[in-house]
Structures are given as C-alpha cells and as structure tokens.
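Intended use. Records like the one below are meant for learning the mapping from a protein sequence to its folded structure. Do not use them to infer anything beyond what is encoded.
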Amino acid sequence: MLNTKNILKFLIYAQILILFLVYYIEYVMDVYACRLCKYQRIPFFLNILLIFLILNKKQLYNFIYILLISITINIGISFYHIGIERGFFTDNQVCIADKSPRNEKDLLKELTNLKNGGCENVKFRLFKLSLSELNFLTNIVFLLICAHIIRYEKYKN
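Structure written out for the chain above:
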C-alpha cells in the first residue's frame, strides 16, 4: 500500500513536470500564454513549497488544508479560463497579451497573424483539450488525492 510520504513525493514530481512542460510550451515552442495562463502557475509553486514543508516538518494537518485551498483556487482560475475559452464568460483584459513585440518584424508578425487574439482562440491543444482544461482535470485529481490523504491520516490516528 502506498504511504502518505510517497503520494506527496508523487505530487511534487507531477507538479514540477507540469511546470516544466508549460514553460517549455511557452518559451521553446513559442506558444502564446495569456495572463490567466500565467496566474494558473502560481498555485503550483505554492503547492510544491507546501508539500516540501509537509514532508520535512511532519505537520500534515497544518499545511494540508492550505494545500487544499491552493488547489481549489487553481481549479477556480482554470474553470474561469475554460469558461472564457468556451464562450460562457466574456473575454476581458485578463486574456490580452502582456508580451510586447521585440522589434518591427515581431510586431508585423503579430499584427498579420493576430497571434494573441485572446483566450477564445486556443492555439495549442493536447489530447484535444486546451491546457486550461488539462489544468482543471489535473487539479481535480490532486484535490481528490489530498482528500484521500486526509481521510487516510484521520483513519490511521
């Protein structure tokens, strides 16, 4: 049977891998990331820090609930982002690019291709899902895993 420490290590590795892939997609593959995409990364950094604290300090109940809140906030952000992509919510200034062109050639490319048209124009999909939809699904799984850890630890004690 898996113990709590191994499950938490798996969560750290999974979140580091997700962050690595997202930065790879943005900077190496040059896929546009709006502000909401970047906001969705912040809870991942917080989650990694919290899981390290849980593993090192053995204060499971103090930090696991903060981890649950962080995951829930990320679910909310990704749900809102999915809503904008699917047209359920109106697009606002959050989805506009904050990346400015470096030179005239980049400006011309941006204007002709309308590359940064907002969240409703998803340019990159994986398994026919946008990265926001994948983020939503993975955070639901992370939330269920954390709920299982809480239930297991309460049953054990």
